[in-house]
Write a structure and sequence with these properties.
heterotetramer, A mainly alpha, B alpha/beta, C mainly alpha, D alpha/beta, C: two-stranded antiparallel ribbon, globular, D: six-stranded mixed β-sheet, binds adenosine-5'-triphosphate, binds magnesium ion, ABC transporter permease (chain C), transmembrane helix (chain C), transmembrane (chain C), membrane (chain C)
Chain lengths: ~350, ~350, ~325, ~525
């Protein structure tokens, strides 16, 4: 608790806040240059997120997958691995859940859990491939995960087209209702927003992330390997095993993002022409959150709020929604380069002093 | 079956000539007052300037605005989970009719319609079973048959190419119709099929076209969205220095692509009158004749698909006559064009 | 498979590879100086955007065949502008290089589309440029079997890329500038103590990577798409990054890697011409380039060794 | 005229780092043609002072005069122009480059109108310089492929190539073998003879007595004294630098030998290029003794340690700990069988620098009770344990939550020793346990090793420093080309004999078995 209080009073908490402010200012300036009204735009944005129960609910739904992929990327980072493959693991998670949701028929208390587990495993295995290739053959995980993203896309399309396709449609059959993880009463309360258990699971993911890495024996091993693999092997920790394990867990987290999109949001899987971007957004979220579980949570919220609100900005103020990517990019930029903020603050202080002197 | 019929009062049947522009077909014209009406459309990730499908739909709505004074608006989706939220934005804002453009939005339209029974929605290229939704589909196979006739008649090498986006039912209809059309006029011609796996990768389209042309094809029909831009670029590239007898052709899709890429490479295009359909159905909404709950398939009969007038530039009249002949046979039911394997 | 087919495949491979080669060269320069560059994707995006817009404007202004070259120039300039952000963040302010690279991708993706919408009345893509590059047959050389069709009937940008491979190889390994650049990436402390301006070298390298990746993006707009939209650059930057690593941070290696990717892509289309391909699900054919890449990496002996100080910001006071 | 002879004068230099005054108005004078030693505890501020002189740090206060002129040294470039060169404690060499490339870097000979580096001329220049000062390096060898001693010569050549007259050596001997040290001292004399002036930072009093003309002693950033070497002695120097009396002599009672605990027999281990790094190594270590492994670096010591600890696969032979076969076992199994290691490279192998001291203290035992409870770590127990070790071993750290990176080298080493000794091992391998440490820290560590032995444990000491081996060991085994070529008792041998055995054992044939110590 003490730590938490300290965290908010330190410069480390001030920097993200200033970074967000600066990011929004950058966005505003660009909107002004483009001839748009930033005040109206930001008001629409906030209105879109907090103005209505429905929008609030949908914002939560938008946060869920990127919270998972953000955790996935951050987890790998913590163990010394750069997982650019959250996208592919996400797709495999989707596919695993769809396969179970469509082809297996079970009572709800078995069906949904099975679909979740299989989806997470599928994502995990997909991550593990990169981990194994790194551990056994020394192949750089950056390359393999990039390649595996594309392979996952086409493999998933194949599976959907070959085994799950609803005739005449470009997508799978609908998953059984017994596999659905929507929360009916909450959706009704939220004015039909697509509420599902994924958000809860993602929050559990945050807690798992923290507890596993900092409280368990295995997490300790992974962190040692991440921080100094040489020292790890001197301490009797198997580096290869750790790498595989870490990529499995990271992949499973990303896979869960896909699982809950299928079971909670779409209820089917389409033959997809390209990547969703959730995996890549996960990298941004992880970085925004400094690879800390709590930071990732805040990062995902910020990211989710901004991107969900972007549609309303273009709806209400006619601003191209791309502006939000510039805002998010700038925020990450200022978070990553606190030196710039300090420099700006110093200049501001210096100027003030000069003015006072005159 | 019932769902494939447009017998809901015949309201959705456009009745003009194939190459008619929306303005000519707008029979009621300025006399209709739509000032109190609000229309909207939601696209997938492509956006309204995709030079084909979405753009066509948006043109239809803008025409409506010009003719009736109705308010129109669009939103493009950044990813699949935005489809529903974007549709709902309009539905909740009291829009009279909200369009989902493309089969990808089918499920979202269904869900929005179920949750908002008082709202009116419509879907292009999809089929939604709901009392407050109008579904508009196209018989792409019929149109593709006709361009197949053109290709089969005009190929010199007896090799023809087809570049598809992704192997999904809609595109399959293009492929099968095209194959049938070629086979009808030129059983000796061989059609090489190449699916690129994407609708948005011009580089893949270019490479696919290159391999088809290298393999001897002189005409390539694409049904691949923006991937098809690569097909055009490859053809242009080849024609730049080629002698007249080595000239290659592209058959465009959705819109009259000769307007974009020029007559020198565009042999003809397989039109899909999304603009017309959007305009029509919206107009019916204003007139109080919205075909709610109906699935309308627009084929040759309804001029929902067909060839543009500009085909004259490259396709000789005798072949166009043949095309017209086949068109009548399809309309009369003498020929049935396959829709699926 | 006959010689002509192989020649055609090689030709297609070069079309794919050109942008990858250029961007990978950019990646090499940046990373050889010790600055990780996952912003290649964004730099290429900026380059493709600028090229499409500038070439379009040039074409409108009646500049004709010079238009694509103006596009390439604009691509280089835009690439540098975005690379400058990366350089300021990572070199001056010592921001995490990975983070900064991701930021470049974000901002480049967002701002180019924003500008497209501003410039083209809300459209999601630029107007089509008709004045694009055309393949140039080199007399005599293009008559060589296989290679003639494969290599000597190519876009001017392909020749440019190949020349740059040689030039950058020479620069890195034969000139004093190259020696210093590499030393800065291996051991900035060592470079500093012999009086090399570490930060200045890194700026130079990162900015050059902006030029090259920008040109790389421009070649895509000026040869394959003829326009710019949200997916003109979709993943090529990451593949180029893979080529940097696969090619062991060496220009020749990266050339080989980029060609390999291009070739694997072109196999794709050729395979579909064979009758047996109708028995293979197309998805497996699409996967092929990526699967092949992984297999080759697994088979390749020897781990690649990254520049010693890659990813480490340099501050003179730190040990 | 004293002024004329002074080449460098630093006056009132103050350099602060966050939370510490590294140099507190330090005065320092270097005369032409002298070797001037800088002496002080770890963290006293020696390197900082010299980094200021070399322009790497800017002092907050103070003035610098070079050859009587006041100068501002705002970067190494300036220092180089002033004729100052520095051989850093941690070499500043670009490893994938060749020797010549490293030397010419930054001022390369050119050809083709400056376009290309003239590598041939570079090689010739390096060759010439190397011969002139008797340095004997191969200009075309890669840094990766040459020994540490050679690397240091490259550093020296770098300064000479740039025309340095004032050379700074920061702990040059910490990483060298006795042979290399001897050669370095010759080189330094050579340099002085050719008119260069040298600042020598070292912790080894013996070296100061041997080679230096004057010595300046620093403690906690302040100069304590500056005096000619003639007329002082090691004990006096040690006292001045630590501020208390230090016993340079180790009290050690006779060994009480127990049964054999570590038996290595015919050990064969593959090295880098498929050659055998260990070639049938055999020795026996008994309870209650310290066995010193003496040898020139690169004769299989690293491989021996890695094989013993399970980090490297064994191609043949056997390793028995307390009678149980351990060859080919996993590191953890071996560790649990009672083997502990103080690794040679504390930053790379011994510590996770970005982890707090607390976590580093359980790096090998985190999975055992009471630290691990059913898969979960008990940080209370771990913290308590760390507090105890920090106290018992006098690890100077602000808190157990301080990152290991922030500790000084001596304290990092103490932390490692605390951890390893606390495991209560049957066999403790200490590899270079005091490299780079000051006399105070060395004294502490040596005492701990002897303590272990007195408790009936076995200690295997691997060191390249003959002094340390001679002082600590009960028995010395000499390793040469992957084989134990002789065993002697320290009381029955001397530096010269050991040195000979280490370099060419054939002269002492008949040794290994007949000399068996009992
Ligand atoms: N870059 C730095 N940042 C912060 N503090 C530093 C830095 N360098 C040195 N210090 C501090 O300055 C003090 C003096 O360090 P210095 O390296 O000069 O010691 P030293 O006498 O060379 O020690 P050693 O014998 O271990 O080499 C140390 O206590 C350390 O805390
Ligand atoms: N980045 C840093 N920030 C703060 N203090 C530092 C930093 N690097 C080193 N120090 C300080 O420098 C001091 C000495 O460190 P140094 O590495 O010189 O120790 P050392 O005894 O010379 O060890 P070794 O010889 O093994 O390197 C320590 O007290 C440490 O606090
Ligand atoms: Mg020091
Ligand atoms: Mg030291």
């Amino acid at each position: 608790m003490n730590k938490l209080i300290k965290a908010f009073t330190k410069e480390s908490a001030l920097v993200p806040l200033i970074a967000i402010l600066l990011g929004l200012i950058v966005g505003a300036v660009i909107m002004l240059l483009g001839g748009y009204d930033p005040i109206l735009a930001y008001r629409s944005l906030l209105g879109a997120v907090f103005g209505h129960r429905y929008d609030f609910g949908e914002t939560l739904t938008a946060i869920t997958p990127i919270l998972f992929t953000g955790l996935a990327v951050a987890f790998a980072f913590r163990t010394g691995l750069f997982n650019i493959g959250a996208e592919g693991q996400y797709i495999m998670g989707m596919t695993g859940a769809t396969v179970i949701g469509v082809t297996v028929h079970l009572p709800w208390y078995l069906h949904a859990p099975l679909a979740i587990i299989v989806g997470a495993l599928a994502g995990g295995v997909w991550g593990m491939i990169a981990g194994y290739l790194k551990a056994a053959r020394g192949v750089n995980e950056v390359i393999t995960t990039i390649m595996l993203n594309w392979i996952a896309l086409h493999l998933a399309n194949y599976i959907v087209r070959q085994f799950l396709l609803e005739p005449g449609k470009g997508r799978s059959y609908r998953v059984d209702d017994s596999a659905s993880v929507t929360i009916g009463w909450l959706s009704r309360f939220m004015d039909d927003a697509r509420m599902h258990w994924g958000m809860v699971a993602a929050l559990l993911g945050v807690i798992f992330f923290y507890y596993f890495l900092w409280r368990t024996k295995q997490g300790f091993e992974l962190r040692v390997v991440g921080a100094n693999p040489d020292a790890a092997s001197y301490a009797g920790i198997s580096v290869s095993k750790s790498v595989v394990k870490a990529m499995f867990i990271s992949g499973a987290l990303a896979g869960l993002a896909g699982v809950f999109q299928v079971l909670g949001v779409f209820h089917n899987q389409v033959i997809s022409a390209g990547h969703t971007g959730h995996g890549f957004d996960g990298i941004a979220v992880a970085l925004l959150g400094g690879n800390n579980p709590l930071g990732v949570l805040f990062g995902a919220i910020l990211f989710g709020v901004l991107s969900h609100g972007a549609a309303e900005m273009s709806f209400g103020a006619n601003v191209p929604p791309e502006i939000i990517r510039i805002v998010i990019g700038s925020v990450i930029f200022f978070v990553a380069a606190p030196g710039i903020i300090r420099w700006l603050l110093k200049r501001a202080a210096w100027k003030k002093r000069k003015e006072e002197a005159i | 079956g019932a769902k494939n019929n447009n017998d809901g009062g015949g309201a959705a049947s456009p009745s003009q000539s194939p190459s008619a522009s929306p303005s000519e077909s707008a029979a009621p014209g300025q006399t209709v007052d739509g000032k109190d009406f609000k229309f909207a459309m939601v696209t997938d990730v492509g956006g309204i300037n995709d030079k084909s499908f979405n753009q066509s739909a948006w043109e239809g709505l803008n025409k409506l605005k010009a003719d009736t004074g109705a308010e129109v608006k669009n939103l493009e989706s950044k990813e699949a989970s935005n489809y529903l939220t974007n549709l709902n934005k309009f539905v909740r804002d009291g829009y009279n009719l909200t369009w989902g453009i493309g089969f990808l939005l089918e499920d979202a339209v269904k869900e929005s319609a179920d949750k908002n029974p008082d709202a009116r929605l419509a879907i292009i290229d999809g089929e939604v079973q709901a009392p407050n939704v109008a579904s508009i589909k196209f018989a792409e196979n019929e149109g593709a048959f006709l361009v197949g006739v053109v290709a089969g008649s005009m190929t010199k090498s007896n090799k023809i190419g087809f570049v598809g986006g992704i192997d999904i039912p809609v595109i399959k209809r293009f492929e099968l119709g095209f194959l049938a059309g070629v086979a009808a006029v030129n059983p000796d011609a061989k059609v090489e099929i190449n699916y690129t796996g994407a609708f948005d990768k011009a580089d893949l389209g270019k490479a696919a076209a290159a391999s088809l042309y290298n393999a001897g094809a002189d005409i390539v029909f694409h049904a691949a969205g923006a991937t098809g831009n690569g097909v055009f670029n490859e053809a242009k590239e080849r024609n730049k220095n080629a002698s007249a007898d080595k000239k290659v052709w592209v058959i465009g899709v959705d819109k009259d692509q000769s307007l974009e890429f020029g007559d020198d490479v565009t042999l003809t295009s397989m039109l899909k009158r999304v603009d017309e359909a959007v305009y029509r159905v919206s107009m019916e909404m204003i007139e109080g004749k919205f075909p709610a709950g109906q699935v309308t398939t627009l084929g040759l009969k309804d001029d929902g698909v067909g060839l543009p007038d500009t085909s004259k530039a490259n396709v000789p009249q005798d072949i166009l006559d043949k095309v017209e002949e086949y068109k009548q046979k399809i309309i009369s039911g003498e020929i049935t064009v396959p829709t699926a394997e | 498979m006959d010689a002509a087919t192989i020649g055609h495949m090689l030709n297609t491979a070069f079309v794919f590879s050109t942008a990858l080669i250029l961007a990978a060269l950019g990646g090499i320069l940046s990373e050889r100086s010790g600055v990780v560059n996952i912003g290649l994707e964004g730099l290429m995006t900026a380059g493709a955007f600028a090229a499409a817009v500038a070439a379009y404007k040039a074409q409108e202004a009646g500049l004709g065949a010079a238009s694509p070259w103006i596009g390439v120039l604009a691509g280089a300039i835009f690439g540098v502008l975005f690379a400058l952000i990366h350089a300021v963040a990572t070199v001056t302010f010592r921001a995490d290089q990975v983070v900064s690279g991701i930021v470049i991708n974000f901002i480049a993706g967002g701002s180019t589309l924003y500008l497209v919408k501003l410039l083209f009345d809300g459209a999601g893509d630029t107007a089509l440029v008709n004045e694009v590059f055309h393949k140039i047959k080199i007399p005599l050389l293009s008559d060589i079997p296989i290679l003639g069709e494969g290599l000597f009937n190519a876009y001017p940008t392909t020749y440019l890329a190949l020349i740059l491979v040689g030039a950058i190889y020479y620069m890195l390994y034969k000139t004093a500038f190259g020696l210093r650049l590499r030393s800065v990436g291996e051991h900035p402390g060592a470079a500093d103590t012999v009086g090399i301006k570490v930060l200045r070298m890194r700026y130079a390298a990162v900015l050059m990577s902006g030029v090259l990746a920008g040109i790389g993006g421009a070649t895509i707009a000026m040869t394959t798409t003829g326009s710019f939209s949200h997916n003109t650059i979709s993943g090529q930057g990451f593949i180029a990054l893979a080529a940097v690593i696969f090619g062991k941070w060496n220009p020749l290696g990266a050339l080989g890697a980029a060609l390999f990717f291009g070739f694997a892509q072109s196999i794709n289309n050729v395979l579909q011409l064979f009758d047996f391909s109708s028995h293979v699900p197309p998805e497996f054919i699409y996967m092929l380039p990526y699967v092949l890449t992984i297999l080759v990496l697994v088979g390749a002996v020897g781990r690649s060794r990254a520049p010693g100080a890659l990813g480490e910001p340099y501050s003179p006071g730190k040990r | 005229m004293e002024q004329a002879k002074t080449v460098v004068e630093m006056r009132g230099i103050t350099k602060r780092f966050p939370g510490i005054v590294a140099n507190d108005s330090v005065d320092f004078k270097l005369r032409k043609g002298e070797i001037h030693a800088l002496l002080g505890e770890n963290g006293a501020g020696k390197s900082t002072l010299m980094n200021v002189l070399f322009g790497l740090y800017q002092p907050e206060e103070g003035e610098i005069f070079v050859n009587g002129q006041q100068v501002v040294i705002d970067g190494p470039n300036k220092a180089i122009k002033l004729g100052i060169g520095m051989v850093h404690q941690h070499f500043k060499l670009v490893h994938p480059f060749t020797v010549a490339e490293n030397i010419i870097l930054g001022s390369e000979p050119r050809k083709w109108m400056g376009l290309a580096v003239d590598k041939k001329r570079a090689g010739e220049q390096v060759d010439r310089l190397s011969k002139q000062y008797g340095l004997n390096v191969d200009p075309y060898a890669k840094i990766d492929e040459i020994s540490v001693g050679m690397q240091q010569r490259v550093e020296i050549l770098k300064t000479l190539y740039r025309g340095a007259d004032i050379l700074i050596f920061d702990e040059p001997t910490a990483v060298l073998t006795p042979q290399e040290i001897g050669e370095l001292l010759v080189i330094m004399r050579n340099l002085v003879a050719q008119g260069k002036s040298i600042v020598l930072i070292t912790h080894k009093l013996k070296e100061i007595m041997t080679i230096a003309d004057s010595v300046t002693i620093v403690r906690r950033g302040k100069v304590i004294d500056s005096l000619p070497v003639a007329g002082t002695n090691p004990n006096q120097l040690a006292e001045k630098m630590v501020g208390r009396e230090v016993s340079l002599k180790l009290d050690k009672k006779d060994a009480a030998l127990g049964e054999p605990i570590l038996e290595v027999d015919g050990l064969v281990v593959k090295g880098r290029q498929g050659l055998n790094a260990l070639n049938g190594t055999s020795f026996v270590l008994k309870r209650g003794e310290i066995l010193g492994i003496a040898g020139v670096e690169g004769n299989g010591q690293s491989e021996l340690i890695e094989a013993l600890t399970g980090l490297r696969s064994v191609a043949g032979g056997s390793i028995k700990i307390a009678g149980a076969e351990m060859a080919g076992e996993k590191p953890r199994t071996i560790s649990e069988a009672g083997l502990s290691l103080i690794p040679e490279d504390r930053h790379k192998h011994g510590l996770v620098l970005d982890f707090p001291v607390r976590d580093n203290m359980v790096l090998e035992t985190y999975y055992q009770p009471p630290f691990n409870k059913r898969g979960f770590l008990d940080y209370k127990a771990i913290g308590k344990h760390a507090e105890k070790l920090v106290k018992d071993f006098d690890v100077r750290t602000p808190s157990i939550m301080t990152d290991a990176r922030a500790l000084s080298g001596g304290n990092q080493q103490k932390a490692i020793i605390a951890r390893e000794v606390d495991k209560n091992p049957e066999v403790l391998i200490a590899a270079q346990p005091t490299r780079g440490l000051d006399v105070g820290a060395i004294e502490f560590i040596h005492k701990r090793l002897v303590e272990q032995r007195n408790m009936g444990k076995a200690v295997l000491l691997v060191s390249y420093e003959l002094d340390e081996i001679m002082q600590l060991s009960d028995r010395i085994a000499v390793i040469y080309e992957g084989r134990i070529v002789g065993e002697v008792k320290p009381s029955e041998t001397n530096d010269r004999e050991l040195g000979l055995m280490m370099t060419d054992y054939k002269q002492k044939q008949g040794g290994p078995d007949s000399e068996q110590a009992d």
